[in-house]
Amino acid sequence: MIRILFDTSALIALYILKHPNHESCLNYFLDNKNDSKFFISNHTLAELYRNITSGRKYLSYTPSQAHKLINSAVCVYFESVSLDSSDYLQVIDAMKNHSLHGAVIYDGVIAKAADKAGCDEIVTFNVQDFQRVWALTKANLVEP
Q1: CATH (domain of 65)
Q2: Which range marks the domain in which residue 119 is found?
Q3: Structurally, how many domains does the chain consist of?
Q4: Helices marked H in the chain — which ranges?
Q5: Model confidence over 91-118: pLDDT tens digits?
């Protein structure tokens, strides 16, 4: 069974019908649904909520709609991976070792979650960003 972690960009594309990458992401998900186990980082739950309630473009869910989507769709198909303080400190250490700073740490957190779950793939529409933190995981980067 293939173990696949979706980052926030892929999760948004999967569930938001008006997203320009919705069709490709949905097809990827459906093609892999029967022989894969899907994961997300706990951090992705918060990022998803923040993004879909932001009111930008097609991301205009109310808090109630976002809550419903996350509980009735996301949490049904995706197992959430928790990181402890030791995991976060490993991510911070990797950021230091690679002279990385700023928001790329969140990609590092997601990569660490993929590693912790033993994922084979990370699905993202931010491949370039993840290539900077790839040392934190052995998972292949996939852009549907």
Answers
A1: 3.40.50.1010
A2: 2-142
A3: 1
A4: 8-15, 22-32, 42-52, 63-69, 75-77, 85-97, 104-116, 127-132
A5: 999 899 989 899 889 999 999 999 999 9
